[in-house]
Design the sequence.
């Protein structure tokens, strides 16, 4: 395995960071004239040639400079993870302070947080609520709230609890709610969320007298717990301005499809072992996303797992993106952990 000299590492880092900003091939002469380091243009050119032979740089045209390869980005990110920069983002701090004000409006917070992340990264930002597919149900409780409203609480083995106020088309005050809650709990206890399919719901409601009224409402409730319905994204509008997407507008549509139907993306994220995971260009090429990258950070409240991440060109500004992901994931983990403790 090749070993880079300290000078080569410094030159490569400068090229990667230059490409973050300008998205144009980098040549040796401008690097030498930039004053970034005390090396002559021939010395830099010689090292760039060696870096190209080792696979860290790519020369697009005979007369152009060079751009970083996926291998260069991998090395750059690995070093960042070993020696993370200390960066303070006022926008994130304001969001964290604002969190308690919007506890009851989780989607409002997520929208604001993802817009902040997307703006900093100039890419699409995404997040999931804690994924519940593997969560085992402990009980279901239905409580009448008003004449046409019910409060539904579903509790899982980890301590997670989902509570929703649902609306019914007619008065429900005469229903036998304790008996119904007990009957449904008998069906649901020990089952995983992922196994609550339409056919299972049909069987579960077959012996419930009030099934006509309850089935549609509760089926919708269970559907909302599936992973694909707990996934959010913001910032798609930043992509058309990026050179990589200007040259291939169809990439925006392909990335949108991946986010709007996130089953495949969730499978990829769930399969990652690292707390910070990177899906590099080489893995995205098969779905038409050449030159792109997906960076995701796991947060784990009470044994559950959720994700926050960005998707965009491979030349992401990693020194800003990685600490911002860490900050947002910490905020989400703290909030959801507090919810589990308080229940």
Sequence:
């Amino acid at each position: 395995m090749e070993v880079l000299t300290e000078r080569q590492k410094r030159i490569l880092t400068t090229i990667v960071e230059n490409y973050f900003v300008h998205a144009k091939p980098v040549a040796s002469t401008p690097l030498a004239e930039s004053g970034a380091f005390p090396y002559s243009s021939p010395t830099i050119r010689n090292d760039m040639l060696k870096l190209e032979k080792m696979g860290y740089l790519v020369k697009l045209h005979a007369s152009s400079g060079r751009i970083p390869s996926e291998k260069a980005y991998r090395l750059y990110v690995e070093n960042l993870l070993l020696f993370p920069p200390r960066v303070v983002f006022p926008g994130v701090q304001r969001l964290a302070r604002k969190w308690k004000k919007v506890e009851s409006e989780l989607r409002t917070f997520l929208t604001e947080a993802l817009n902040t992340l997307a703006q900093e990264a100039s890419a699409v930002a995404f997040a999931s609520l804690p994924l519940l597919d593997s969560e085992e149900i402990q009980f279901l409780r239905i409580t009448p709230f008003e004449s046409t409203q019910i409060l539904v609480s579903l509790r899982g083995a980890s301590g997670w609890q989902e509570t929703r106020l649902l609306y019914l088309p007619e008065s429900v005050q005469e229903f036998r709610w304790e008996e119904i809650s007990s009957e449904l709990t008998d069906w649901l206890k020990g089952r995983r969320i992922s196994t609550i399919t339409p056919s299972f719901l049909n069987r579960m409601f077959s012996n419930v007298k009030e099934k006509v009224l309850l089935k549609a409402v509760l089926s919708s409730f269970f559907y909302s717990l599936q992973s694909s319905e707990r996934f959010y994204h913001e910032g798609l509008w930043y992509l058309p301005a990026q050179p990589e997407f200007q040259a291939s507008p169809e990439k925006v549509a392909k990335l949108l499809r991946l986010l709007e139907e996130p089953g495949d993306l969730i499978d990829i994220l769930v399969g990652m072992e690292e707390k910070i995971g990177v899906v590099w260009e080489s893995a995205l090429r098969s779905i038409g996303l050449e030159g792109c990258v997906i960076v995701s950070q796991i947060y784990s409240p009470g044994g559950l797992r959720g994700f926050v991440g960005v998707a965009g060109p491979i030349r992401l500004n990693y020194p800003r993106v990685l600490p911002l992901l860490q900050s947002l994931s910490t905020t989400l983990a703290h909030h959801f952990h507090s919810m589990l403790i308080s229940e």
Remarks:
- Confidence is low (pLDDT under 50) at residues 99-104.
- Strands lie at 57-59, 66-68, 124-128, 137-146, 149-156, 161-167, 231-234, 276-279, 292-299, 306-313.
- The radius of gyration is 25 Å.
